[in-house]
Each structure stands twice: as structure tokens, then as C-alpha cells.
Specification:
With 119 residues, the chain is of the alpha+beta class. 39% of the residues lie in helices and 19% in strands. Helix 2 packs parallel to helix 3.
Length: 119
Amino acid sequence: MKRVLDKRRKRLRRKRHIRKKIKGTAERPRLSVFKSNRHVYAQVIDDTRGHTLVCVSSKEAESGKGNPSVESAAYLGEFLGKRMIEKGITRVVFDRNGYAYHGIVKALADGTRKAGVEL
């Protein structure tokens, strides 16, 4: 149990360090990613107003059942990119939320780029 708490504490420390530098604006909002054991969530946030502009999760996107995978995260990124293009958002700042930039997080970012959004 202590190992799990230490992992969570370290991720939150990395998250705070990253968020000191990253701010989402109306012209370039922040794309934030969250992973749980069962699902992946992504939101596009305008930090100046404190509003979520677009959100998507593996629950609503038909990305498959079960635990998240790289393939489902790539599909989720494309799905998010399409929603962002519909709202007129073409450029974002990527917030990996303290997670390492590989696997699911990287696949989601690549899927968003594939849809035509600049990270």
C-alpha cells in the first residue's frame, strides 16, 4: 500500500511542477489527460475563464471494452481532435498531467495530431 501512495504522491508532485509552466488561454487552450485503471479522460480547458471547452472519455467513445490500450487511446485522440476542429480549436498546449510521455499518453497525443490539431 505504501508503494501505491508513493507513486501517487510522486505523480502529483510532477503534475504541480508542470502546471507552474503550462497555462491554457482562449487562443491556445490546455489539453489535459487523466488515466485510471479502466478509462482514459481528456479535456480541453481555457484556464483564463476556468471553462472546459471539449471533453472526451473512453466511456463515451466507442473505443472498446476493458482496460485502456494504446489502440483505444489513439482512437480517443482522433475522436477528440474531430470535436476540437468542430469547435474551431486548432492549437493546444499538451498537459500530460504528471504521466510519462509514452504508451497511452503518447498515443492520445498522436491521435489528436492525426486529426489535424497542432500540439
